[in-house]
Amino acid sequence: MHNCIGILPGAAHMLEHNCCNRSERYSENGSFKKFVELNGGMTNATTFMRSTQFIAEVPYQHMHATWDGLVSQVFEPIFKAHNTKLEATIISNERNDERWYPAGNELGHYLSTHVYFDHLVSLRQTMGSDKDLEAFTPALLRHYHRYYFSPKVYAIVAGEIDSDYVCETLERIPTEVIEMPIHFETPRWVKKEYHERKFRDVGRWEYRLSAMFHEPLDVSTIEAINFILEYMANTTHGPLYEWLRTRKGITYDTNPSQCVNEFCHGWTVLFPMSNRSHVKYVRDNVYKQMRKALRDRERLNLEADRILNGRIFNLQTIGSQVDVAQNDLRYFDRIVTETEINGYINKMRNVDFVQTIYNRYFAPEHVGEFCAVPES
Ligand SMILES: [Zn+2]
């Protein structure tokens, strides 16, 4: 519902809050949450850029009742004017904590607004202004609630519950495709070329190399990019880590990260340094080091083995299985199997293939540079 023409800003989040108050099965205010949590479980809801998620975790003997309660909360909420008014002021308070939106601190805010622009949903779209929030009524929420009956809704259930029962419940819920005219800006670089800026809460010279891509990337490409990042910067035998920490002693760590959302994909490697001459040294030599490392067949093989061996620790808990399934569904519309991912990792033993990925996603023309500098 974010950025939808004709829909009041903040609607998705306001709807989420109000659904959690009362439902046909738990009509007393907050009674579903109390049922779950007084039994040692947890329930919550979150609104993302393009979706809202309702979750509940509970000891196994309460699975059935919790499933029924959660479904009722999502599809049979009861909206009352009293709650709608209170949620308006609660959300206003929640919004006022978002000082550095879309990030949690000044540096993150600067990166997302002055280095690149990637926050496609404004704070007003996410949370609503006070005026927007005051305009919500139970009737308006009921009107927007129609959007919940989308064929795109999915449920992830793990644990002691009869899956036939879960499927029957879902089959009884009618669905309808409603066209939603949306307008999103394109993510873009604001200032890609190297620059520095001082921040009060930065302790080191934080040099970042980043790239962003607007086309949706498939799972194999994302895994390949992730492999290269992990390979380069890992603390076991990562070539960048060995170069800058083990041999030169000029950094404590090298930190790679990937950012995937519904509209763009990006990666960053953060090099925390101690002064400008160290930053210059990294800038002058980093591509030479990366290109050399990507021709090292033996080390690429060791890295593939290391990652595959480490993967046996994945998916060992229900929580991690649900997290992975949920991310896959959100970004790829399907659950990606372990066998498939292992296949992508094995492909990275091929030096020519690694080279192709590097040229397309890591070569200097795709990369922006920024250095955050401590204030004193
Ligand atoms: Zn909220």
Describe the secondary structure blueprint for this structure.
Elements: H1 11-19, H2 31-38, E1 42-47, E2 52-57, H3 63-75, H4 81-95, H5 106-115, E3 116-117, H6 123-127, H7 130-134, H8 138-145, H9 163-171, E4 188-189, E5 196-199, E6 205-213, H10 219-233, H11 239-247, E7 255-260, E8 265-273, H12 276-293, H13 297-310, H14 318-332, H15 338-347, H16 351-361, E9 367-374
Parallel strand pairs: 5-9
Antiparallel strand pairs: 1-2, 3-4, 6-8, 6-9, 7-8
The structure holds zinc ion.
Residues 13, 17, 91, 94 line the site of zinc ion.
Write structural notes for this entry.
With 376 residues, this protein is α+β, with helices and mostly antiparallel strands. Helix content is 46%, strand content 14%. It contains 16 helices and 9 strands. The chain has helices at residues 11-19, 31-38, 63-75, 81-95, 106-115, 123-127, 130-134, 138-145, 163-171, 219-233, 239-247, 276-293, 297-310, 318-332, 338-347, 351-361; strands at residues 42-47, 52-57, 116-117, 188-189, 196-199, 205-213, 255-260, 265-273, 367-374. Strand 1 (42-47) and strand 2 form a beta hairpin. Helix 10 (219-233) packs across helix 15 (338-347). It is globular, with a radius of gyration of 24 Å. The two termini are 44 Å apart. It binds zinc ion.
